[in-house]
Amino acid sequence: MASPTEIRKGRVLLHDGVPHLVTEMQHRTQGRQAGFVQVVMRNLRTGMATNTKIRTTENVEFCFLERRQLEFSYRDGDEFHFVHPETFEDTAIGRDLAAEMVPYLVENVSYDVLFIDGKAIGIELPAAVEMAVKESPEGIRGDSASNVMKPATMETDLIVQVPLFVKVGDRIRIGTEKGNYLGRA
Fold first, then answer.
1. Domain residues of the chain, as ranges?
2. What's this model's pTM, rounded to 2 decimal places?
3. Average pLDDT across the chain, whole number
4. Which pLDDT tens digit goes with each residue over 142-151?
5. Do domains 67-124 and 128-184 have the same CATH topology?
């Protein structure tokens, strides 16, 4: 058991018997009352975000989280297979654990896979991923008076707003937090 003041972004704590990944935390005090820690955390089983207040007088339990750099290999139905680059050990992650990350999973790219007690519980996306443009309408010439954008379908079927000069086959970088165009790769 530990003090709530030891909670940091990126740590995993046991909340109601379920592991939660801390995405934001803020220590607060109110006048003469005891302080508390405001925590935004993501349930690693369901993927749902929770906003919780934990008083500094309470105790919290942390889980040992292991991160392994694995390469996304292929998708088989509702399972996503990741392979260790040296041992070729296959790890399957269900769609329920990878739901919002699916559009950013590009084959043959390495991702951090999170493990608790030897069991894969989720994927941690990098800040940006590189993808090829699969479909994009041609830009209209002379329509460059302002920052004009057009939709582009990526190799994972993700649709991103890109500048007019981006063509089919170009490799671009996409931010995984907002799903926005960052630049050419």
1. 4-62, 67-124, 128-184
2. 0.72
3. 86
4. 655 667 888 9
5. yes
